[in-house]
Amino acid sequence: MSKYRPFLISAFLAAVAVLLVSLYLNEKEGLLVDQSTATQVIVAIQDINAMDIIDSNMLKIDNVPKRYIQPGAQTDIKAVEGMIASVPIKQGEQIVDTKLLFPGEESGLSHRVSSGRRAVTIPVTDVHGVGKLVRPGDRIDILASIDYGVNDREEREVKTILQDVLVLATGKFVADSLPRATASDFTGEEKTIDLRKEDYQTVTVELDPIEAQGLIFLLTSGEGEVFLALRNPDDRSRYKLYTTDSERILGPRSKLGLKRSAEQNRRGPRWLEIRDSSAVGVY
Question: Is the model more confident about 127 or about 105?
Answer without folding.
Answer: 127
